[in-house]
Structure formats: structure tokens, C-alpha cells
Amino acid sequence: MRILIREVKNHLDSEVEISGWAQNIRIMSSVLFIELRDVSGTVQGVLLKKGNEELFDSLKTIPRETVMSMEGQAVKSQAKIGYEVQIKNLEILNKSETPLPLGVVDKIDSDIETRLENRYLDLRRPEKLSIFKVQSTIANSIRDYFVQQGFIEIHSPKIVAAATEGGTELFPVKYFERNAYLSQSPQLYKEIMMSAGFDRVFEVAPAFRAEEHNTPRHINEFTSIDMEMSFVNDDDVMDVLENVIKVAGQSIAESNERELEILGVSKPSLDYKFKRISYSEFVKMANQRGIKLKDGEDLSTPVLKTVGGEINEFYFITRWPRELKPFYVQPFDEEYSRGFDLQFGELEITSGAQRVHSPEVLVNNLKNKGLNPESFSFYVNAFRYGMPPHAGWAIGLERLTMVLLNISNIRETTLFPRDRTRVTP
RNA sequence: GCCCCGAUAGUGUAGCGGCCUAUCAUCCGAGUCUGUCGAGCUCGGGACACGGGUUCAAAUCCCGUUCGGGGCGCCA
């Protein structure tokens, strides 16, 4: 029965069977070592030539990254990790071709381009695996938290009709005899669920944006963690968001000690209150730093870098100008809205808001934004027959992973990134 | 979409008019070495993105194409 490599140390002085990839084979005249790797770690197998001549010679020409299974005695030894497996039986399950398009254990770092082209090899490296183990923890801890808080997990359609929010470019798809689009966000649907009386919902699903951006923080398909709650305001859902981030940080600290060590990242320490800085205060902060910025202007990347870059923690930017936020964001007063962003330093992690719940205000907002309320009837109608006040937000899973692991390119936290020029693998 | 920068063995690089039948490392192959762990040592293998131009001479300079990187814009 095959065991995981990290379990070998619990079976010293007994027979074990392990399977994995031969990441390095060191051959001496009378003894050879095979470093075997599986999802849990690595261990070396040893084979003395004496008494095993045939097997010994056949292993001399085995390429790196060949998949094999070995049986033998697990023993304490002078190996660096303190133990090894004395090979008795070895079965080649699948030979690797050579040379490798990308060395898994080479000392040379490859370009991200080469790594993405050969992602299956790149992901064999423990650091890359670790990123996605952590991402799994993040997603699951958030999901658990929501379920615990009485949220209902929903799955909204990803193929949508022409009319959406405006603004973002959409990917067109052929829908039989009609044109449709890939969904940019579950926004309208999760709001409709409030009208449906589900009270609190969440969804973890892909979102598609056909923007031709080319930055280390944008991709065209990402995983959006969305939530929406009824009978709450913007401050309430900011509280929930702060908890969610802290829960995720806590779960990583508890479950991914080894991965953090491999990545050389310290445990997230989030035991501080997330600051809530109003948009207008943020503008003042920029002005104090010599940046010419008027109240009402959008916060550009350089502004966020200068001001946000100084704040090396999570913080909210609240009360954005209505002008800068979408039609479904609830006004705070004539000028400002109940929309907010969660930032980490310069990076936007989340966008959220208390939403408009009055159909009249909604229709008015649509018109003001130059959109035709008629095209949104499927959505607006849900407001006509009893829509509760509600609020919600959406986090980019990949961006959250970047922040918690201090990774600077979103492609690193995406298994198979879709960017301006990449659709494969 | 705009502005910079880049493309040399499987991988990562040096070279930036003649010294280049192109450097180094890794890798691959052959051999050697009684326990290595970035194994060591010896020998061998493998590359100038594509198209055009300038020049006696181009990896090197110029133009175009393709692809990539960075910055910005766009971006619920």
C-alpha cells in the first residue's frame, strides 16, 4: 500500500511503498540515490550495486522526472533529513522524455513565460504547489465562514444577455441564434436573490473581463468571491469583510505552516482594526504629499502607489463620489456614495457597497449613467415588488492570495492565467 | 490603445561591427569515482526569433513583423 512521502518518517525500520517523480538521481560507482518527490515532500531512495547489479545498471539511464514506485526499508541514515528508503523493488511507471522543457530542480530560474508554457512542470516545484495549497485554504475558510453565518451558496449564470452594467467590456459568445456574453460579475443576480428573500448569499465563481489591460494585477478570467446580505448597510458588510479576511489569515497560519515556510513568508498578522479612510481624506493625504488631485477625480495607479504604498496593511476607502461608482451603489448624500474598496497598500482587493433598493432611485441612476433602464428590466423588475435594503462585496481570490503571500504578479496565483495574449494552456 | 525595453543551445545568460566555426552555468550523452544530498572529476553535444536593408564584413547597425517584459490607460 502506497504511503505519502511525508509519512515515511513514521515507518522507520519497516517496509514502505512510495510513489512519485525522480527529481534527481545521483550515481556513484557502487551506490546510487534517487530523490523521489510526491505532493507531500521528498525523500531519497538508496540502492547498493552489490547484489542488485541489474537494477542498478538499468537505473543509470533513467531520466529525471520519471514516475516510479519504490518499495524498501525505511531507515535512519546519514541523509540530510535523517532517514532514507533502502530500495528493494522499483517499478518505472512512466519514463520522462528528455531534455525537460523546464528543469524542476535546476538552480536556474526560468522566465514566467517559459514557466506558464510548461505549467505542469512549473507546478511540480514545492513553492508553486504551496501557493495553491494556501489558496485552497483561503477559499475553503471563507466558504466555511459564510456557511456558518447562515449564508446560502448560489450559482448564478455565467452566460448573460447583452445588457449589463455598462463600463467593462464583455466577451461575446454565440448563444444559438442570438448573441450573449460571458458574465463580468454576479452582481445583478445576487441582488435579485435579495428580492427573492434568500437574505444572505455567496458565490465563488469565475468572472470574465474583456479589458485589454496588461499589468501584473489584472487577468481576464479570475475567481470572484461574492456576497450579498439583506437589511444591512455598507458599514455592516465592511465588518463582515474584515472578519472574512481575518478568518482567511488565521486559517493559513493554522493549516499552512509548512507552505509558508517553503514560500519564505511569515504568518499573516491581522490583529489590527482595518482603517476606514474616506475617499475625501485619501484625496487630502495625496495633496499633502504634493500630488495635485481634486476631490471627485478617480484615484489613479500612481496616486494609489504613493499614498497606498505607505499603508502596508488592509484598509478601506469609503464614501466614494457617486460619479465614480456604478448605478447600483446607494447614495450617501448629493455627492458621495455608500461604495467602498478594501485595499492592501496600493492594491484593490475588494469593491463593495450598500446598494440602491428603491426602484425609482435605480432607474434614475441608470439614466444618469447613460444606460437604458429598459435593457435592465429583468433586474429592475426585481426591485418593484419588495426589495429589501441590502449590501455586499466581491473579493478577487487571486488578488487576496497575492497579498497574503506577498506575491507581486497575479499570474503566479492563477493556475492557468488568461491575460491579453494567453489562452493556452 | 499609448510609452519604454527586450528576443542568442532544452533552460538561464555573456558578447553589442571583423578577435565569434559565439561565453559561462544548467541540461543532455559517454566515462570515472564505496554514500551522495546544488555530489565531484574528464570528454563530448546543443543556439544568434522571422523578413528585408546598410557594409568589404552583421549575433552586433537600420526598417518591418511576430512574440515577450515593465509602466500607464482602460478596469463592479
In short:
By secondary structure, the chain is of the alpha+beta class. The chain is built from 12 helices and 16 strands.
Architecture overview:
This protein has helices at residues 53-59, 112-117, 119-122, 126-148, 187-195, 234-255, 257-263, 279-288, 301-308, 359-368, 377-380, 397-405, and strands at residues 15-27, 31-38, 41-48, 66-76, 83-94, 152-153, 159-160, 172-175, 178-182, 200-208, 221-230, 275-278, 314-318, 339-344, 347-354, 390-396. The protein is elongated and about 85 Å long. The strands form three sheets. An eight-stranded mixed β-sheet has the order 6-10-11-16-15-14-13-12, with helices on both faces. β8 and β9 form a beta hairpin. The mean pLDDT is 92. The protein is 28% helix and 27% strand. It has two domains: 5-94, OB fold (Dihydrolipoamide Acetyltransferase, E2P), CATH 2.40.50; 126-413, BirA Bifunctional Protein, domain 2. α4 packs across α6. It has 425 residues and is an alpha+beta fold. It binds one RNA strand of 76 nucleotides through residues 24, 26-33, 35, 44, 46, 48-50, 61, 63-64, 77-81, 98-103, 105-114, 165, 167-169, 184-185, 187, 207, 209, 211-216, 218, 224, 300-302, 325-326, 328-329, 339, 351-353, 394, 421.
What are the segments in which pLDDT stays under 50 over at least 5 consecutive residues?
none
Task: Indicate the CATH architecture of the largest domain.
Answer: 2-Layer Sandwich
Tally of strands: 16
Count of DSSP helices? 12
**What's the N-to-C terminus distance?**
34 Å
Domain module count = 2
